[in-house]
């Protein structure tokens, strides 16, 4: 047995107070880089070793599966033994586990499947088409946002009041039809998982009591990101006897646009009057200057529990403030600074470039490419979101649940098997009129004379294929089933025909999926499910887990929202301008402006040693030239914490010399289509297109050996032959 008190001695005073806080409701306001994960894992170890709680009496909620796995490992390292019977996971993962155990009480099919965002949108597109309304005026994506928002608030159709507003009436009708479609198909979306569990517990207090008796200690990470239904679910589970230990940072609440309610953490001690509140303010990440800037910016948000980050570290370098001529100059500055970092022995992965809008990344990518600096854009598709993987998973889903319309629609003609658009249209129409699923509609329609013999045979062959792939029992190894599906569906042949690098990548990915299924172990608590359903649930719940690629030495590019929870020695925050940060549409809305300021605070506190804040004199954004104004957030930083790095005489440079050269334009070079040029890497070629100096100063060259390449003029080092 460990000596937990000895382990706790390694923590600072505030962390120790948090870990050993009296039993009851506790709120930990944990500033950026203050060691909140350390507090959480030690609190759990303290509850087990010092207070006598069984791991089975503890529930820990995180916001990503990765953080859940890491938390469990850290707890086990402290304790020195495994804690398999303790529940650690995300809201969706934990509630999904409850629904699988009580699927009947939740009014679900036993083999229900989980829709990802693409599948949800596919169903909504079909609904909008069937309603015969203008799809440009009522796009499926808009309906998707409406439905997800309502579910995050815990609202069903019958809970929503609408007046004579046409928009609300249409959205509510789509929501109503969507619910019926999902119920018929035996599928649920992510928002439904939590809402369905909450409703089931409310209807069956005896089932709720089972979980209330078990989970006496409930710990929640990133509490500032909880939405209405998540908070209500926690309150229901805690009841009158459970203790909530919540950890979060009100100053890092940046997901209001997807339902997160900052009031959940701010007003927690008003909801629970006996709450113990503790602040973690000592920062172990950033230098004094960076923390001073962060504190100064966030202090301008009103009605926030005051919190001030501090460090025993030195002030470090002043924050670099650079006014670029334009976005090309901005990119060149970043390239030069990264090269300087590399010259001094640093790694490329130590550098992160953060932006408010994805559109800002294009010029940065081009500059890094031209400078031969490898980079990784965070936020791309995760493995289970890739098209080829979703194709295979859709076959597996349809094998498990024939009524899964989203899966049926995705693969019924993939690879192409001669089922034409008219036949699919008939299937959809028949299903809509008869209130059937697409599979049920297909079964009926092939026994009628309403479609051509060719389409009838093609659809019949597809139904026979799916039936033939269904394993006779749960003993069939998952990897063998997956391999069989890929083979018999002709997906392997279909992907192998593409000899490009992209095609080879798809073939490699489906082989990797087979390997993943061979390593898959049944999830804890899902023993009553088939192995196939267990894996499909795992794949669905893993969707959306977008992780940074730190395994390779690459510069990291990401949005400010994506950067939360990460840290880097050197950080570049670009586009520090009114209209970008904060966005124009938010600057006159106090609530939204406060969230934009928190977003800026998150960006600043990602930096450990060096922080660059960059703004431009002019910028092309969304095909428009703008003359931006310096962001108000920079103006909130004390001037003594900043060092202006200037390339123009009309800006004070505090002794710094210009770093970035002035840029030439196409007009100044006389380059034009048809000219022969030479590039040091790609060799000789002919200019086939140019972009005007009012846009991005690029040339398109058809190289003899390398093909067509768009090159940024100022990095290309082209020579006219």
Summarize the structure.
This protein is of the alpha/beta class.
Task: Explain what you see.
44% of the residues lie in helices and 14% in strands. Mean pLDDT is 89; it is low at 648-668. The protein is built from 30 helices and 22 strands. The protein is of the alpha/beta class. It folds into five domains: 4-102 and 194-282, Rossmann fold (3-Layer(aba) Sandwich); 113-185, Arc Repressor Mutant, subunit A (Orthogonal Bundle); 291-380 and 549-645, P-loop containing nucleotide triphosphate hydrolases (Rossmann fold), CATH 3.40.50; 383-542, PCRA, domain 4, CATH 1.10.486; 666-720, Thrombin, subunit H, CATH 2.40.10.
Shape: globular
Helix content: 40-55%
Count up the helices: 30
Name the strands of the widest sheet in spatial order.
11-12-10-13-14-9-17
Radius of gyration: 28 Å
Number of self-contained structural domains = 5
Strand tally is 22
Give the second-level CATH assignment, the architecture of the largest domain.
3-Layer(aba) Sandwich
- Class of the largest domain, according to the CATH hierarchy? Alpha Beta
Q: Which ranges are low-confidence, i.e. pLDDT below 50, for 5 or more consecutive residues? A: 648-668
CATH H-tier superfamily of the largest domain: P-loop containing nucleotide triphosphate hydrolases
- Give the terminus-to-terminus CA distance: 77 Å
What would the average pLDDT be, to the nearest integer?
89
Strand content: 5-15%
If you consult CATH, what is the topology of the largest domain? Answer: Rossmann fold
Q: Give a short account of the largest sheet.
A: 7 strands, parallel
Structural class: alpha/beta
